[in-house]
Here is the input.
Amino acid sequence: MYYNQTIEFLFNSLPVFQNQGSSAYKPGLDTARKLDVAFGCRHREFKTIHIAGTNGKGSTAHTIAAVLQSAGYKVGLYTSPHLLDFRERMRVDGEMISKVEVVDFVDRFRKMSLDCTPSFFELTTIMAFEFFARHKVDVAIIETGLGGRLDTTNIINPELCVITNISLDHTALLGDTVEKIAMEKAGIIKSGVPVVIGEASGAVREVFRCKADSVAAPILFADDANGISNMRHGVSTLDFDTDSFGAISGELTGECQRCNAATIVTSLMCLRNMGWNLTSEAVRAGFGHVCSLTGLMGRWMKIADAPFTVCDTGHNPGGWELIARQLSECPGVKHIVVGFVGDKDVTCVLSYIRGISNARLYFTQPSVNRALPVDELMGKAAGMGIDGCAFATVDEAYKKALADSGEGDTVFIGGSTFVVADMLACMQPSV
Here is the structure.
């Protein structure tokens, strides 16, 4: 009962981006620093690796965590948002924070007399730092929430920074060009701290290089490192060869993982050069068992074989360019269950969906306040010449897609992290 009341307080008494969108976004680090001091600046008690980027930062964070766990390090992992359980956001060696620890932290916060009102993300970030310190982790992998420069997580002083890629997302908050967004993400680059950049070219690459040069941060571009060769899809793996760690079979098989793998391998090479004990065996184990080691879900996640059913949390144009390409190669009729939140570039995403041949669309909406109403989505799709059926809930759309599909078809569920969350929730056994 106390845990449920605590979660209700977190989601209903604090500004929550998941529910409210941009009105809950609090740029700036003043509140985060005050809250950090109030709880003893616990992030100073362990090493950190900081990860930002438009797409792929979750997969990158989880895989690096899995490799470090396999290498014998005690690893904290802080990511967002969660899919089914708030406690997914913070883990130590794959184990979620306990309900008792969540209640205890929030109780202590509510008894404090602070001259600031934190957002949900500010408070949960400090909760994660204290959780990691209490469990005496060797290192914590910290994923930014939104942006980088003004993100709450940017109060840490990491051993390594990683920026996966840049594309247009959250443009109202981060900027309406990739260069402006890159400048915000580049805000995590610290003086003298090595930084690995995943995908970057042209003006975006120059933004990162200039920022790194200005603070004397060693910079390594994954495109230049040539750490991966001969990449191909296996039956249920993504296989590739590396000069540093040998042949690797990755558990994550989404098209986006091709780029993520290069970023991760380059980051691991950098860590090993810095003195971290990373054997080839540990790297292979981390890539090969990332989901079981860290609890990762929702990344081209296979639900069933017949019909072939997958879900993916990709939710912006950069992610959907790759999802659409991979869906086009899937078997049979593509039954696509899709919904969005209201602050996304739906028109661009729909243009990628329109290019998928032999597809049937099941439009829906996730069960969050920010959801784009399904009738509005239907209107946007119709204006682009895209036909489909509307469903009030993800559960209804998913069940209809399954009913319509044959064993040789494909069922896909996505468009938003929250659509995937609703789908996974409806698959949970009833209590």
Q: What stands out?
A: The chain has two domains: 2-294, 301-427. DSSP finds 18 helices and 17 strands in the chain.
